[in-house]
Prior knowledge:
The chain is 26% helix and 27% strand. By secondary structure, the protein is of the alpha+beta class.
Amino acid sequence: MSDPEETDEGTREWFSAAARELDQAERSRQGIAPLSRRPAGLTPTDAWRIAAARDDLRAQRGEVRTGFKLGWTSEVMRRSLGVSEPNFGSLWAYMNVQEGLLDLQRLIHPKAEPEFAFRAEATLAGPGVTALDVTTAGRWAVAVEVVDPRWESRDFDWLDNTADGSSAAAYAVSAFRPTAVPPERLTLTMQAGDVECRGAGREAMGSPAEAVAYLVRELHARGAALEPGMVVLTGGITAPVDLVPGLEIRVSCPELGTCRVRCT
């Protein structure tokens, strides 16, 4: 899903170099200095192209894309952090937590967020896709998303987060189910040690279905679509929690069941 706009060879190499640096940071567990704070700076176009170049690296070595994750879909969270718009990144098969066990040894400074997840059962494409289109084209689940910024600290901004694929690192989902309850009216509870948080689907852009529709419209602008079987994490419903060995995260919804992840 590369950006179709042409750039000169030197600029393309800069995007590729930044993507390789982020890729190495993830693989080595060594955070790097944020790109936005370097002398060359970073623009929104730069950030999206670096993210696309990094996705190309993964695809070239045989990684399989399983879907997408949205970030900053909560207006409350955006306001509190001075962020003006959502973003998104890719999910890959290696990020899917197997048997509910998350190996913290492969991460830098991870946090977990409870979310509603969508799985497409039909292709969703085009500039006019709506939340109603989404609700008739797939099933829903609850999810634990693990975000892990590849920066040396958490002092980074939206541009860095976008270049970093919205900090996508790992995820687990419950069984996908149809639901007669409108997505915005679904509620979930996250239990993580002594912390308990509750939230509703409306926290994600007014509805998780609208969050998916937003993603599809953004994919269309990049010449892509949401294909059958792809998973979408629609954005954190509550504040995230820090992850430490031994912690178990449990996210549950009356209509969608329960998802569990244990940190090792």
